Amino acid sequence: MESYLNDNFGGVKSKNSSEEALRRWRKLCSVVKNPKRRFRFTANLSKRSEAEAMKKTNQEKLRIAVLVSKAALQFIQGITLHSEYVVPDVVKAAGFQIGADELGSIVEGHDVKKLKMHGGVDGIADKLSTSTTNGLTTTEDRLKRRQEIYGMNKFTESKVRSFWVFVWEALQDTTLIILAACAFISLVVGIVMEGWPKGAHDGLGIVASILLVVFVTATSDYRQSLQFKDLDKEKKKISIQVTRDGFRQKISIYDLVPGDIVHLSIGDQVPADGLFISGYSLLINESSLTGESEPVCVNAEYPFLLSGTKVQDGSCKMLVTTVGMRTQWGKLLATLSEGGDDETPLQVKLNGVATIIGKIGLFFAVITFAVLAQRLFSRKYHDDLLLSWSGDDALEMLEFFAIAVTIVVVAVPEGLPLAVTLSLAFAMKKMMNDKALVRHLAACETMGSATTICSDKTGTLTTNHMTVVKACICRNVMEVNSSEKVDNLSSYVPDSARKTFLQSIFNNTGGEVVTNLDGKLEILGTPTETALLELGLSLGGDFQAQRQETKLVKVEPFNSIKKRMGVVLQLSEGGYRAHCKGASEIILAACDNYVDPSGNVAPLDEAALNHLKSTIDSFAGEALRTLCLAYKEIGDNFSAKDEISFKGYTCIGIVGIKDPVRLGVKESVATCRAAGITVRMVTGDNINTAKAIARECGILTDEGVAIEGPEFREKNLEELMKLIPKIQVMARSSPLDKHTLVKHLRTMFNEVVAVTGDGTNDAPALHEADIGLAMGIAGTEVAKESADVIILDDNFSTIVTVAKWGRSIYINIQKFVQFQLTVNVVALVVNFSSACWSGNAPLTAVQLLWVNMIMDTLGALALATEPPRDDLMQRAPVGRTGKFISNTMWRNILGQSIYQFITIWYLQTQGKGLFQLDGPNTDLTLNTITFNSFVFCQVFNEISSREMEKINVFRGILQNYVFLAVLISTVVFQFIIVQFIGDFANTIPLTMSQWVYLRIMRQRSGMFMKEKRSRNLQHQFLVFHHGKLQVEVKPR
């Protein structure tokens, strides 16, 4: 079966599956009872095609708009344009001078002419009653008026489907519809033949069973839909920096209104349509909207920013003009959301299992009906009544047909693929509480097979709470981790060097020091920038004063490939100065001079160079992150279009930043190692810093290799084959190095790889990996978009928790499959063999429907929602080639099936003598005992399925309230069916002795499996231990 599933249903991957593979498996699913329910959680490929067509249309529209705007720009240079636009009365009454449609046509149409007619960006800001400096004035009344005129920044979402919609979908089951028709005929014929109410019992019993199945199924599906809705809301929680009332603050993107001033930086998603106000080196990736991969340069001349696009490089201030469904992104998003997520590999495989068993069940159902019908025809032929048919005969034939249809109901395990969804929904909800937000369903199950985790250092293994604790300025190495030591540093550093140092810190930064709503100074920016700005403030620096002393001419934002950031300042006294900071050894290699202890610029001779290098190594050896700051004078002739030369710098100083290892990381790494998961650190930091942190975390061992990115890049394929399995630390790595490592691990070594990332440049590696893990705090929106799971607390221990949940999902689905296949096999064989042997089916349609609910919805609830246990992380990972239906599962399925079949068959043949049955109700009593035995065998099979290998199946059962509730409900309802509603279920009340005997017999089902496992797990052999002969018991 495994090879058949792999050949026909194995084309769907955990991510990036081809459309051909998605279409192929759908065609193979020929036996489907309820397509609406079965394929509810699969991708809508037709809607995806619509979205792609819309993207192509957008691409063409924007291409034409860009060409027109460029031509218009050349034409209107120097021409004074007059606007003929008439402001709508409702807009004017609200206090604005431009309507939503006009704003939309300017930005979406890239209409330079219209923009100029309205006075450019400043003119639009005035007409929106906002300030490009201080932002909106946010009184509740004014914000409400803006939303009424321009709309809200929210997108159309699919409505929450009511419970009755799920009831209607559950009723679409073909077999249930046929059974309902049988019930109706049975009802009519029964009432005609036997009158009311006796003649209606069989028909009403089937109807009641159908309704029970439908409502239980609909309740389960409805709860799942609510869980997914809650998770979707969590995925859409995105915050953005804005200026309102003159203060920088963070708000939800859904609270944005036209007139807001938004601050965008590298990795952000543009939250609404808008216009560029000011910024540096801004490159926008519009591929999500247009499919065009080439980034667009946005500046004052070409100021149009579109919602849904991403900042690939640079930073800017943006004026929001159009929001929500008025944007092109809003319209596209509505179509994209209808496309849905790809189905997961497990869902597809289980659809394959359901199809195979469904075909077998259909075959057995037809044969069973044929055998039963042939028996009836033979009897009537022998009695010479072949042409004489009574109502009883018709009812009997109808009952045979209903049994055959019900066998199909039981045999087609429609619940198998849906059990995956149920388990995933349950796990995703619980993982949210454990600080992991799952964006793609498949990531849950794939993480359970992970064999390698490639983790970042900063913020994942460390706390990301950075402080500068050491500094080397003017060759003076000092500790600066307290205010007294900072004052001490100031006394050793000449004023000229201190002034240059502060100028570098406050100008060459991606952070800001702002005054918050409480009137206090607040530092905004990455933890590294925050640490440097805190040092600058503690040295007596004034951020705003420093920024006003010089003019910022050019900014080259930090780049993880170049590993540096640079700016050019126009000095107040004349001339230009470039500042640069970044990886210490890279910046130091670009320096020809340094600032000596006197504060003068001196040539960087060998002694000074060795001193600075040893300082870097010393800081790195203490697990400090090192940064080098440098500057150079570049004369009077510099333009913002010129490149900043990377040579001839003067080293100002080196700082050592402390980023402590997170609590519990070492234990989590040890847990991974015990679970067969290799943890590798991939970082852009200095190799000595990386090695020190890796040893502290327990990642780097004596057998492991630590390598730098540049050295890794130079290796050929043969060398990489030998090297990659040993790599435990990769330092000074570029995003391409990470991508290459991940690709080789997956393709050359068949590893299942999980990768963490937080930056924009990590997107390719996150996309390439089997599971992309983005950081929720430090991660950019681009990284989050590319990821499968978002680690909300940026903690490595949470990644281990995700792995544990992944394994739990995989095991839970295996348990449910084992349980359901056992019921399938026994129900099929018992009804078929009994039909062939005695001419009767021991389990009626109503009884089989009840069994179907036990094994389908209730079984999934009980087994697919087991919480993870710690011992899951003490077994080897499944990996990429592991069998889903393992040999252990086949052993359990066949063992239980054989035992149950023998038990039911023994009762069928010897039950009358065993229970000393006689009288008119003998057959009905025996069938009731058979039915009761069968159901309680499934109850103990359910308990037994909690552990596929271990003997103690009751461990932790009292902590699983869902399992207990399902178990108790099944037992109680079974008792009610047998003792009180026998007229509808074709049962008769049993005596106390019969209940006691059945209890002993069904307990043997569990004991049988325990014994089988015990024999399989253990064997005895003799060993010598300390000179004595002993008997030792070990697992096989």
From TrEMBL:
Record PROSITE patterns: ATPASE_E1_E2 (PS00154)
Transmembrane segments annotated in the record for this chain: 176-193, 199-219, 356-377, 397-427, 958-978
Compartments it resides in: Membrane
Enzyme class at the top of the EC tree: translocase
Keyword field contains Amino-acid biosynthesis: no
Reactions it catalyzes: Ca(2+)(in) + ATP + H2O = Ca(2+)(out) + ADP + phosphate + H(+)
Taxonomy, superkingdom: Eukaryota
Listed Gene3D superfamilies: 1.20.5.170, Calcium-transporting ATPase, cytoplasmic domain N, Calcium-transporting ATPase, cytoplasmic transduction domain A, Calcium-transporting ATPase, transmembrane domain, HAD superfamily/HAD-like
SUPFAM superfamilies named in the record: Calcium ATPase, transduction domain A, Calcium ATPase, transmembrane domain M, HAD-like, Metal cation-transporting ATPase, ATP-binding domain N
InterPro entries named in the record: ATPase_P-typ_cation-transptr_C, ATPase_P-typ_cation-transptr_N, ATPase_P-typ_cyto_dom_N, ATPase_P-typ_P_site, ATPase_P-typ_TM_dom_sf, ATPase_P-typ_transduc_dom_A_sf, ATPase_P-type_domA, Ca_ATPase_N_dom
Single GO MF annotation: calmodulin binding
Any one annotated GO CC term: plasma membrane
Annotated membrane topology: Multi-pass membrane protein
Domain Cation-transporting P-type ATPase N-terminal stretches: 117-191
EC number: 7.2.2.10
Keyword Repeat: no
Keywords per UniProt: ATP-binding, Calcium, Calcium transport, Calmodulin-binding, Ion transport, Magnesium, Membrane, Metal-binding, Nucleotide-binding, Translocase, Transmembrane, Transmembrane helix, Transport
Chain's role: This magnesium-dependent enzyme catalyzes the hydrolysis of ATP coupled with the translocation of calcium from the cytosol out of the cell, into the endoplasmic reticulum, or into organelles.
Family classification: Belongs to the cation transport ATPase (P-type) (TC 3.A.3) family. Type IIB subfamily.
Protein name in the entry: Calcium-transporting ATPase
Organism lineage: Eukaryota, Viridiplantae, Streptophyta, Embryophyta, Tracheophyta
